[in-house]
Backbone:
């Protein structure tokens, strides 16, 4: 699509920037997968290692920031190059947040490993796999400059939101059934919320890909399917003897 | 660059040889440069030597012309010979027999001289101009009539040449210009201290004459001046305007190229061709007066015009186009651009070209010969239409004359001409320097 | 086909729709048989700085020179099409070119003050056009022009000094003062800062920004960052054609044409 710069060092620097972002993204993708797997296996040691790994992700973000600052000062990028460079900064920021969210899931996992097991927690691994796949796809779209792939990821977030809605209701049900479930379910709720947030950040990255390729910031109005903020569960428990 | 001490040692032999080779080449080059510089200096030395020899020869021959011999006598302005009726009428005064007055003043010093032949020989010691000088004195001051004054009178060219050492006493009398008796009289005058040399103002003021002692460059100088003036007034405005038109306004096409080629060729045409043109057109067709500086100036203008045009064009071309662009961008019309900006900047070059052209014209002889300025002109011309001659032509005429007295006059005239040329060329250099500083 | 980008919503510096100053339609320029500019259509707005960018030999300087008919001085140059200023065709036979150039001034790449005094440099134009009735009036014009060009404080004590004896940046500002002394409506600048150091360049850019409120300015530049800083509209020329013309911000962040993008990002060649 775009040819090579007359000054080859410029192309090298852009490539290096993309590589850094991809390395960071790969790491984040792995973190997501590992943390949910470890959570399900109740492996606290592994979860502890995952938490430590997050520092490397933060360092990657600093590296990207340094490279971007240097390129802005020395190359004065224009047009598509400018959008690429600014995009890389935003993507790194999103990836760093994703890393933090994965770390938080790991923390929840440690807490869960000490609480009782919840039987139908299978929804979380499903959701996590979907989110991890999204992250993988969006990173692929970033490398391949694939606008359609990015748009697909942007739309798929809707599915993640639906899965979260379902999980939310299910966990509430568990909590209402048995008070001993409240602690583990609350942790799982937060973990699930973190996963959902990771999905949202993936859509941010998709929008950055769009910005880099077309200059538009938005695909359209993002379909937000997450209704949990306004959801009120109907309590089957009698409040003061009377059924509503 | 060697990296270690060991390597230098092993390389040592080879390095030294390389250095030696380079040194030899370097020596050769230096020697060649020194030789080249020597040749240059030699060339300059030869040129300076030649110039020196030329100048020394001319000055040696000519410097004596600036002094003339005179004899101091008592002159009695006999009213009987000048104005017998004491009318005071200038016309009668002018017709007085001043020759007799001069004759008598000299013979009064040698009362023993008798016999017509001897008397005539004595009189011949004086110049014919002596009588004219006396006339001039009386006309300016009629009060001299009847008085006796001590005056110095001009002597003849033979006496002058004797005093300047050009006539030898050793050759037999029959081959000599002055007889033994005349020599004796001259010695007697010299003993009395009556013979002296004075500055020859007449050399600069008088016109040409058969008599060397009376001949001067006056008419030639004025003729040259009028000629150069005419040449200047004709060639410079025309030449500059032509250059301006060709450079600034004319379209660049085959016609202008043709004109440019022709102008360049004309600058190289031998000057006598222009003389022929002047003869054929100005004198024969238009019937203009012969020997007039006006015609001479016109012919020289034709000759100088290409030089002026070429120099002016070069000066105009050297004005950077950025000046023209700037002037145009402020809304100046093409004429304003040329008059206000280009010409002032080109002026040093134009003036230099003009002065060089004029200097060349000043020294031209051939074209002037063709239009008749080779005549024998006695009276100093008053205007450009009076017959005149030019300095180079005057030199040519005198060089041809047999009289001994003209030799020094020729060289002196050459000195004057050279002085003018040096002056003109120096001023060209100075003007260019002064104006170039401001730009 | 020229790509036109959308005008941003915000009106340009407070005014309503800026008035159109120069309209060029179908302009072709030939040097002999060689076509240097091919069917260029462009609109220059009043009180705006328009930048012409493009690689060497693309015709931007040639097009600039069409606006004040400086191309007339080049013998082999032929201009066809229409160029109108305030609706008046400037190539009409009845137009006096010298008067046109008092309305459309020009500043050149290499500063070219006249080899006269600083005062004379600025006073020459008003004098030959009879703009000052007295010496005092002329003094006022000189002072105000030098003041507006940001040069007055630096030279007010040496107005009789030669115009070529000041620094390059000052010389260029003197040329700008000379151009504005005759009260033009449009100022054309052909790479005005390419011979100057960064400080002098910055001063001239500030000056251009100042002058924008009174004149329309068209600037040709090789320095894209300068064009980006200084102009509101940018036109990209390539091989004699106008490739893209739009708001500067748009052209430099998201140009519509691939060729424009390749040029400004350094992918040409």
Residues:
């Amino acid at each position: 699509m775009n040819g090579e710069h007359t000054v080859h060092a410029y192309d090298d620097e852009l490539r290096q920037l993309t590589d850094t972002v991809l390395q960071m993204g790969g790491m984040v993708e792995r973190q997501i997968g590992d943390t949910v797997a470890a959570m399900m296996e109740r492996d606290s040691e592994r979860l502890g290692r995952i938490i430590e790994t997050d520092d490397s992700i933060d360092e990657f973000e600093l590296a990207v920031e340094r490279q971007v600052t240097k390129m802005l000062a020395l190359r004065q990028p224009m047009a598509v190059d400018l959008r690429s460079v600014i995009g890389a900064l935003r993507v790194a920021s999103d990836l760093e947040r994703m890393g933090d969210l994965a770390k938080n899931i790991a923390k929840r996992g440690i807490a869960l490993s000490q609480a009782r097991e919840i039987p139908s927690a299978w929804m979380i691994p499903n959701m996590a796999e979907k989110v991890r796949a999204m992250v993988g796809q969006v990173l692929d779209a970033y490398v391949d400059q694939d606008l359609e792939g990015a748009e697909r990821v942007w739309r798929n977030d809707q599915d993640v939101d639906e899965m979260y809605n379902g999980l939310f209701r299910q966990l509430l049900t568990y909590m209402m059934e048995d008070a001993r479930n409240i602690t583990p379910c609350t942790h799982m709720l937060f973990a699930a919320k973190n996963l959902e947030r990771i999905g949202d950040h993936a859509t941010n990255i998709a929008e950055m890909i769009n910005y880099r390729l077309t200059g538009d910031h938005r695909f359209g109005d993002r379909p937000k399917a997450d209704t949990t903020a306004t959801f009120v569960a109907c309590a089957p428990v009698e409040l003061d003897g009377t059924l509503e | 660059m060697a990296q270690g001490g060991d390597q230098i040692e092993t390389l040592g032999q080879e390095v030294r040889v390389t250095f030696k080779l380079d040194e030899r080449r370097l020596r050769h080059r230096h020697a060649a440069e020194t030789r080249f510089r020597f040749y240059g200096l030699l060339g300059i030395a030869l040129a300076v030597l030649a110039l020196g020899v030329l100048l020394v020869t001319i000055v040696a021959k000519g410097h004596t012309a600036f002094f003339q011999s005179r004899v101091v006598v008592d002159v009695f302005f006999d009213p009987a010979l000048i104005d017998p009726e004491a009318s005071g009428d200038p016309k009668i005064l002018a017709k007085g027999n001043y020759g007799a007055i001069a004759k008598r003043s000299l013979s009064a010093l040698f009362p023993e001289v008798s016999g017509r032949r001897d008397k005539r020989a004595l009189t011949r010691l004086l110049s014919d101009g002596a009588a004219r000088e006396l006339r001039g004195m009386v006309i300016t001051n009629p009060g001299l009539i009847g008085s006796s004054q001590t005056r110095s009178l001009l002597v003849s060219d033979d006496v002058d040449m004797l005093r300047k050492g050009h006539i030898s006493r050793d050759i037999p009398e029959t081959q000599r210009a002055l007889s033994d008796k005349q020599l004796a009289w001259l010695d007697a005058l010299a003993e009395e201290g009556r013979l002296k040399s004075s500055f020859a103002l007449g050399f600069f003021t008088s016109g040409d004459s058969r008599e060397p002692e009376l001949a001067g460059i006056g008419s030639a100088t004025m003729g040259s001046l009028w000629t150069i003036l005419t040449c200047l007034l004709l060639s410079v405005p025309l030449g500059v305007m032509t250059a301006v038109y060709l450079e600034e306004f004319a379209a660049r096409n085959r016609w202008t190229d043709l004109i440019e080629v022709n102008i360049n060729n004309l600058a190289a045409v031998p000057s006598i061709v222009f003389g022929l043109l002047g003869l054929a057109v100005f004198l024969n067709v238009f019937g203009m007066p012969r020997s007039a500086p006006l015609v001479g100036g016109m012919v020289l203008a034709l000759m100088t015009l290409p030089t002026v045009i070429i120099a002016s064009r070069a000066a105009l071309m050297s004005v950077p186009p950025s000046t023209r662009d700037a002037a145009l961008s402020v809304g100046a019309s093409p004429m304003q651009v040329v008059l206000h900006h280009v010409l002032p900047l080109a002026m040093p070059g134009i003036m230099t070209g003009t002065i060089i052209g004029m200097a060349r014209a000043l020294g031209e002889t051939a074209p002037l010969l063709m239009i008749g300025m080779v005549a024998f002109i006695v009276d100093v011309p008053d205007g450009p239409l009076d017959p005149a001659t030019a300095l180079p032509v005057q030199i040519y005429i005198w060089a041809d004359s047999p009289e001994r007295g003209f030799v020094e006059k020729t060289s002196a005239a050459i000195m004057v001409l050279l002085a003018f040329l040096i002056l003109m060329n120096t001023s060209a250099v100075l003007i260019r320097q002064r104006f170039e500083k401001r730009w | 086909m020229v790509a036109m980008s959308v005008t941003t919503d915000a009106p340009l510096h407070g005014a309503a729709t800026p008035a159109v100053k120069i309209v060029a339609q179908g302009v072709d320029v030939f040097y002999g048989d060689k076509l240097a500019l091919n069917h260029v259509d462009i609109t220059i707005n009043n009180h705006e700085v328009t930048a012409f960018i493009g690689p060497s030999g693309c015709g931007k300087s040639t097009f600039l020179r069409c606006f004040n008919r400086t191309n007339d001085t080049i013998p082999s140059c032929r201009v066809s099409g229409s160029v109108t200023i305030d609706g008046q065709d400037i190539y009409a036979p009845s137009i006096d070119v010298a008067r046109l150039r008092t309305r459309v001034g020009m500043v050149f790449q290499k500063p070219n003050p006249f080899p006269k005094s600083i005062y004379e440099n600025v006073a020459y134009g008003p004098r030959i056009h009879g703009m000052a009735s007295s010496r005092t009036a002329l003094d006022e014009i000189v002072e105000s022009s030098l003041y507006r060009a940001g040069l007055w404080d630096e030279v007010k004590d040496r107005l009789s000094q030669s115009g070529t004896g000041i620094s390059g940046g000052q010389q260029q500002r003197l040329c700008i003062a000379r151009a504005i002394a005759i009260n033009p409506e449009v100022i054309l600048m052909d790479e005005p800062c390419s011979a100057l150091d960064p400080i002098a360049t910055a001063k001239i850019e500030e000056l251009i920004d100042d002058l924008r409120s009174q004149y329309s300015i068209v600037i040709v530049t090789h320095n894209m960052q300068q064009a980006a800083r200084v102009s509101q509209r940018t036109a990209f020329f390539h091989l004699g054609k106008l490739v893209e013309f739009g708001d500067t911000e748009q052209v430099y962040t998201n140009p519509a044409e691939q060729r424009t993008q390749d040029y400004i990002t350094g992918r040409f060649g």
Remarks:
- Chain A touches chain C at residues 2-7, 10, 76-83, 214-215 (CB under 8 Å).
- The mean pLDDT of chain A is 88.
- The helical segments of chain A are 8-41, 44-75, 79-113, 123-144, 147-177, 182-214.
- Residues 79-113 of chain A form the longest helix (35 residues).
